[in-house]
Design goal:
- The chain is an alpha+beta fold.
- The chain folds into 2 domains: 1-40, no CATH class; 42-117, no CATH class.
- It has helices at residues 7-15, 19-37, 81-84; strands spanning 49-57, 60-67, 86-96, 99-106.
- Strands 1-2-3-4 form a 4-stranded antiparallel sheet.
- Strand 1 (49-57) and strand 2 (60-67) form a beta hairpin.
């Protein structure tokens, strides 16, 4: 996991940016703050999984993940989880009564499901 930069080092880096770059950062930061204020989900870091992709859909956060099964001798237990883990599989995350809930979705996300099934 990459280490978080200190606020001082972040300020120093931002001061080196051009005006246009600062405006782009400002716009992005505004959007990020607004999304978080509207109840965006912050997921806890899980050592046995690796996120590949994220997407918001119908009020939930969907994340494509590779995971370890934690069975002794399984191939997923050696090497980086992003390469050796099982999957990838989609998981849904949402907030319910101030708690983050999750649900296994499967190989296909809901926006790709065939409606004729």
């Amino acid at each position: 996991m990459p280490r978080q930069p200190s606020l001082d080092s972040l300020r120093t880096t931002l001061q080196r940016l051009s005006l246009k770059q600062k405006q782009e950062v400002y716009a992005w930061l505004g959007e990020a703050i607004a999304a978080e204020a509207q109840g965006a989900i912050e997921l806890p870091q899980q050592s046995g999984s690796a996120a590949i992709e994220q997407r918001h859909y119908e009020g939930k956060l969907y994340q494509l993940e590779k995971r370890r099964c934690n069975k002794a001798g399984c191939r997923c237990m050696t090497g980086a989880v992003a390469e050796a883990g099982h999957g990838p599989y989609w998981y849904a995350y949402w907030k319910e009564q101030k708690k983050v809930r999750s649900q296994y979705v499967g190989k296909r996300p809901p926006w790709n499901r065939d409606s004729s099934q």
